[in-house]
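User: Can you model how 2-(butylsulfanyl)adenosine sits in this protein?
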Amino acid sequence: MRSDINYHNWRYYVLNDPVISDYEYDQLVAQLKSLEKKYPQFVTPDSPTQRIGDELTEGFATVEHKLPMLSLDNTYSYDELREFDRRVKKTTGETEIEYVAELKIDGVAVALRYGNSLLAQCSTRGNGIVGDDVTTNVRTIKSVPLKLLGNGDLKNIEVRGEVYMPREEFEKLNEKREISGENLFANPRNAAAGSLKLLDPKEVTSRHLNIFVHTVASPSSKKYTTHYQTLLALKEAGLKVNDNMKLCNNIEEVIEYCELWVDKRDELEYEMDGMVVKVNRFELYEKLGMTTKSPRWAIAYKFPARQATTLLRDINLQVGRTGVVTPVAILQPVPLSGSTIGRATLHNFDEIKRKDIRIGDTVIIEKGGEVIPKIVKVVLDKRPKDAIPFQPPKKCPVCGSELVKFEEEVALRCVNVACPAQIKRTIQYFAGRNAMDIDGLGIAVVEQIVDTGLVKDYSDLYSLKLKDIIKLDRMGRKSAKNLIDGIEKSKKRPLHRVLFAIGIRYVGIHAARLLVERFGSVDALSKASYEEIESIPEIGPTIADSVLKFFKDRRNLNILKKLKSYGANLERKEERKGKVLEGKTIVVTGALKKYTRERMKELIISLGGRPSSSVSKKTDFVLVGKEPGSKYEKAKALGVKIIGEVEFLKMIEEH
Ligand code: IVH
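Assistant: Here's the modeled complex, given as structure tokens:
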């Protein structure tokens, strides 16, 4: 029964591929428990029932590591990786070096000792020489086998690995802590470290920690001559090895693999902070040797950090297009993954309250998949004594009218339709790049034309005259002329962009396209019934409701009437074309100006193309931004077409 249950544990926790239901599994464990209760003389330390120690540990004993737990040298650029490769070749006298590239898991380093195939001791790195004995806690991690499988090749080994907390568990844990008023963990790594040091193993169990094993520390069994073989053997023995690794023939292949993961890191259910590159052949290790801190046969390639600590100087209030008042954090500027961050979103006032964010606080900020950074938590130890909780506003910071909180929403709204802030944001939205794309209509111009009463809604843009614009602050004749031309040009934008630009709630550019395909004109859409709209695949009740509501509002109808009289395009004129990127495979590399890479991928898909993360002969073209990586080199080598962002945008314009 024990080996049965251990087998199912392995299927579930290591392979993520269970062969029985949770219920059946629980039944098995319950049976074993009751048997062991009846015959306690047969309880063994590797029994699956022994994962959760019932007694409380008093602090932690210290463990002296048999071999020091080293760390790795870090590199931050591909050139430094190439430099590492040159060093390895020089020291070993080899001309070709094979490497294994692995994910660098962002967790807590642990050493696991097995004696006679049984899990004997687990320890943290500590200072590298002595660490904490966390055996009881590591035993709660279900993917750690209590007994190794197989023929006993590896029965007396010490392996090194990384204990981590899956992102989802981390979010759940922090949510719970928020509710109970406990201090938040800054990231999954801190949460994993905190959990490993808990004194109650039952509590540790509830944290759902996990592990990846990545290295054998001792002994290097004679049978295996390469690191890659060892990883496969560890897996065979039932240890959890990360499948995302690659045996590479040279450093360029390593770089290519790194590049792949820079793009894909957000898809993982755990955090990684870079790649670890290891020489594959063990016979070279001795020649390479080590420094006092790290071996010379491995190196880490670190991805740019995503968190930083800074001071929250102020909280500003912004009124959006739909009247929602959003708090924005004004930060002491800090560099973070390639840019300087001076602002962060705070989403809403509930969030400020939940996270107890106060002006003057030191905060940890994070730049994740999204472009705008967010505040993760407050460093409470650094809070100034006089910091007072932030009070949500009662009045609109722009027009002064009372703010309203609708029952189903968390947001505070200014419901004054004449609020200048809303008008300005609506105009900016209308003129935006995905919408009417009016060049030269920056925020400074919008502020002035609304404040001086020249423009009361976006349709008034088309009544602007050169003489009005020239009078504006810091506006030369040439830029005024450009703006007038830009406004005129925008009358020719295709209908779906107009439909997007007029700002019907929930109607994004994709929905706008679908609506145009079905109805062909704003007029027809304004007369459509709920059922007609909702019957379009991909259009749901929320959009259908919102469209109906929009066309019921007299003010909107008036604006549309004005738009029409000024000659804006309210009907589909163009012949229906196939999608511009139909069937094309496109790779995006480097930093783009106008879109994030994620947004660009969505755009490519919406135009019928297929974004891909690696360049091959089948790639139709590579879209190259600033500081492109090895994909750019590869495209050149393969003779794949390379185009820049501006050229690309031209190509898809009007679609
Ligand atoms: S190999 C001799 N492989 O990163 C050191 N380490 O900065 C062998 N880490 O101490 C380490 N993922 O805690 C290795 N796939 C991986 C890793 C990994 C995460 C951690 C580990 C190490 C630290 C080095």
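A couple of observations from the model: The mean pLDDT is 89. Residues 70-72, 102, 104-105, 109, 160, 162, 214-215, 276, 295, 298, 300 surround 2-(butylsulfanyl)adenosine (CB under 6 Å).
User: Helpful, thanks.
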